[in-house]
Every structure is written in structure tokens, then in C-alpha cells.
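Problem 12. The chain below contains 101 residues. Write out its predicted structure in C-alpha cell notation.
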Amino acid sequence: MQPNAVLKNKGMRVLSEHLGIVEAERFIALLSRERFDYTQWSQDLFVDVPLEQLLSDAQAFREELNASSDPFYSESNIEVLEQSIRDADEGRLTEHELIEE
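Solution.
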């Protein structure tokens, strides 16, 4: 996991590159000042995006940020996540203990 300061800097850089600095600041202000259900918002945001596309985009983003040193992106964890997605797609969800390496 990246330190908060690094995550904030990278996030602001991505927002600024795509929105411009003024709109990026405006976006952050909107999130900070308006009450909303982030979970519902994020689900609605990606409702029409196929799961495979989300996975592909997440992989590309990970590579772009060079996050390979983060244990979340370890090969073993990615395998567990991919299997969990296949299980969810097939209606087979199982609860398990936290996996720590």
C-alpha cells in the first residue's frame, strides 16, 4: 500500500492531466462538500462497463503507476482475485479468512 501523500500526489496528477488543474480542484471540492453515497455512485458509474474491460483497465492503470511493489498486486493475490471473480460469475461465493503473505 502506498503512503497517503504518494497516493494524493498521483491522484491529483491523474486528475490534472485529464481535467486540467482548475477542473481537478473543482472535482475534489465537489466530492468534499456534497453528501453522496460513494458506493452507489461508483456502481452506477461503471454499470455499463463489462467486467473484463474493468479488469483490463485496472491492469493497465497498475502498470502505469508501477505498483508492482505493492503486495496487493502480487501474482498470488491477483490469482486469488481472478478466481473470486470467476466464482462470483458462476454464483459460487465463499467467505474466507484474510490471506496474508
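Discussion. The first helix runs from residue 4 to 19. Students who got a different answer should revisit the alignment rule from Section 12.3.
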